Amino acid sequence: MKKIFIVLFIASVTVLSCKQKSSEVSEFLSPEEGASIAAGSSVTLKLNLEGGSFDSVQYLVDTSVVSVKTDTGAVQVSTSGFPLGARLLTARVYNGKDASDITSNILLLPAAAPAKYTYRVVNTYPHDTSSYTQGLEFHDGIFYESGGGTPDRGLGLSSLRKVTPATGKVVKKLDLDGNIFAEGLTMVGDKLIQLTWLNGFGIVYDKNTFQKLKEFPYQSSREGWGLCFDGSRIWKSDGSNRIFMLNKDSYQEQGFIEVYDNKGPVNELNELEYIDGKIYANVYGTDRIVVVNPSTGAVEADMVLSDIAPLADRFETGNVLNGIAWDAAGKRLFVTGKKWPKLFHIELSATALTAR
Fold first, then answer.
1. Segments making up each domain of the chain, as ranges
2. Is the CB of residue 252 less than 8 Å from the CB of residue 233?
3. What H or E segment, with its residue span, contains residue 344?
4. What is the Cα–Cα distance from 4 to 302, expressed in whole angstroms?
């Protein structure tokens, strides 16, 4: 038995050794692993094969075959049509029936830098400083607001509010259970949909009565941050650079986009608003709003509103810009921040709006 085992062991080692020799691949010479590539441009793929023989090399980007070669000459591959973000490169080296893979990766980024929007304040409204604003909506002359916080975090109880714009008066308020930290908010028909941060579920209300109709669980998205509705589907952020697409009726996730500007991923996407075909997103911890193409995830424009509210009006460190609402009928854009005393109607620069 020992002799048989030894013979089998030697035979298996010999087979493995032959396989490694026949198609031993060292590395991608080009591109450099993790290289940032402008989306739509061509990338040069070139291999270093060390010893052994091969019949052909099949090149793949993710799961798509982009070229087949019978030598190790460089291959030019267009990145047009591939999504932004990390893309897997594979060289599959064939020798007879045997094949071995060598992999690398690139990061596809938007080719153009985002346009820089400027703004002017058209009007200023009072805002309740007890609201740690997480979500803001404007419909039929009324603000609907989701305020976050739990008692142990010192921010007061989370709430759902209905607010009169001219006075900032809260005309209807629902306080949530003390263990819930409320987050983003959007409206779909006669329903309000509100996220919770770490509780793992969203809440659906009747928009008129604030009666809770149901809860729905999150799926792949890790947390609840921001929400918006584009008329056919809901978009949900979770604190990463991903924005998830949710079915407007079942609230089930149906995919996601990844958000990048020309420098890399834009993380900590928070409050969302859908405006004329684009997603406007607050970047948590900053006074920055990015304008995202929902088809590609590319940041097409951004703005920094750090001078819109003086530090004296922010009361506490971390009370940053958070809250975007769009008056679709009046074409008015509103912004505010966490526990800010003011809410602003702003107008974006016409010049910046046409810049790309």
1. 25-109, 115-354
2. no
3. strand 342-348
4. 70
Q: Is 216 exposed, middle or buried (0-12, 13-18, 19+ CB in 10 A)?
A: middle
Rounded CA gap, 273 and 50, in Å? 53
Q: What is the SS3 assignment for 12?
A: helix
Instruction: Give the CATH number of domain 25-109.
Output: 2.60.40.10
The whole-angstrom separation of Cα 285 and Cα 297 is 21
Measured between alpha carbons, how far is 317 from 298 in angstroms, rounded to an integer? 30
E-strand stretches of 238-312: 242-247, 253-258, 260-261, 264-265, 269-275, 278-283, 288-292, 299-304
Q: What is the Cα–Cα distance from 15 to 35, expressed in whole angstroms?
A: 36
Largest CA distance in the chain: 92
212 torsion bin: left (phi>0), alpha (psi -120 to 50), beta (else): beta
Contacts of 180 (CB under 8 A, 6+ apart): 150, 158, 196, 199
pTM score: 0.88
Structure token pair of residue 89: 């490169």
The 10s digit of each residue's pLDDT in 241-286 is 999 999 999 999 999 999 999 999 999 999 999 999 999 999 999 9
CATH node for 115-354 = 2.120.10.30
